[in-house]
């Protein structure tokens, strides 16, 4: 399956991206895609026509189209957990039945969304709780997929946030609850306990702490629970009318579209939330209908595969030139690395290739003043994914947005072109530097260039556009997972640490280290216990 691509490695290694532009006047058009207001430019990569054809064939041979159909049809493609993968149903606003295990799942999804919208409207217009103070603040307690999606989206859509202010508690570190609750009034704060399993240690501990802060069980009237284990919510004391359930075919890191997104719905209102869903659904339609070579999530995945498997780049940086997407890299770290950071194929055999790169990033322009040094001159190449809005939300600050765009475009240009030693020397000579100093300094000012990047331009970060972008990344993960032959929808790799942590809690209470603990862990425990009062 990989032979054709592997055969392109040698030519890819010697090729310069700038030469591809010199040889092809329309490269920028041929290696970019425009759909529904989005422009995805992948011309600043080393992919040429042969490489693109080989990549598309790879997707074809891997049966991306058939597996995509199976996912959307509700087949149990999450084989290790025997589940369907249907987060797309949460943003399916149509009426065509979607049958899973003999039942159309859409009416229930819609009914839950309507119940959420009713409560959200009541909170936002002040009619909830009715007998007390108006809700001004919302605290979402959750972690991983029950935190990162809504947190990222609430922040991204701040200009649409005309509802209560949302806060997020995730870390089991008591500092998170302490600092988040500081200054909040329990009587005007709604608390959302969000956990797919309703069994996550951090979330339940934080929920108990926040309940005590709010005034004990009486405060439960301002609590909401979100879970796919609704019976456990009742045990916690949250009444059924404020419990929003979802099915196990929604993976945690894919769950922002449904009840887990309730904080977002409270912040921006049900109408704007629906627009977020519409953006996601539009991307679903494009993903299902467009041919592989003109399919945005497919191309995004293939560029990633090229960079990692052919060019050997082990990481990728996500660099949004949009301050409000500051948490997008963290969100994508879970989405991509928890989904595709695997070592075995679906059938249990070891993967022959390393699947799933390390994903990291920060918003521009801040990153420029921190780690871009390595990106430009470090010896390991980091493919960069730039995201950029053609317009911002601050028309009065147009100067800022112009500078933002200029910086983003300048970075991909610098990565592509670099600076030769001759150019560096000429610049220094102009400044009057000469002799040995010139020889030395010129070397430090050389940029190899030829470093790949992609740029996604969107019109403006609206709820619809955010929906498009998030769904695009979800489908990229799917395509990469299919090509690697893995199950992108389980996460067994997080379990061992949880089990060991449970065993270590008693040790922290002075009951001795668990049997079999390593000498290092025993010594660390002794040291920590010895330092405590
Ligand atoms: O939503 P919860 O059931 O509380 O799970 C929260 C998170 O915990 C886990 O350990 C998983 O690695 C994540 O995929 C999940 O999103």
From TrEMBL:
Pathway: Carbohydrate degradation; glycolysis; D-glyceraldehyde 3-phosphate and glycerone phosphate from D-glucose: step 2/4; Carbohydrate biosynthesis; gluconeogenesis
EC number in record: 5.3.1.9
GO terms for MF: isomerase activity
Record-linked Gene3D superfamilies: 1.10.1390.10, Glucose-6-phosphate isomerase like protein, domain 1
Database matches in HAMAP family: G6P_isomerase (MF_00473)
Family designation: Belongs to the GPI family.
Pfam families: PGI
Subcellular location per the Swiss-Prot or TrEMBL entry: Cytoplasm
Lineage, opening ranks: Bacteria, Pseudomonadati, Pseudomonadota, Alphaproteobacteria, Rhodobacterales
Catalytic reaction(s) noted: alpha-D-glucose 6-phosphate = beta-D-fructose 6-phosphate
Catalytic residues as annotated in Swiss-Prot or TrEMBL: 338 (proton donor), 369, 498
InterPro entries, alphabetized: G6P_Isomerase (IPR001672), G6P_Isomerase_C (IPR023096), Phosphoglucose_isomerase_CS (IPR018189), SIS_dom_sf (IPR046348), SIS_PGI_1 (IPR035476), SIS_PGI_2 (IPR035482)
Native species: Shimia sagamensis
Protein name as it appears in the record: Glucose-6-phosphate isomerase
Keyword presence, Isomerase: yes
Known role: Catalyzes the reversible isomerization of glucose-6-phosphate to fructose-6-phosphate.
Top-rank taxon, per record: Bacteria
Enzyme class, first EC level, given as a word: isomerase
Chief location bin: cytoplasm
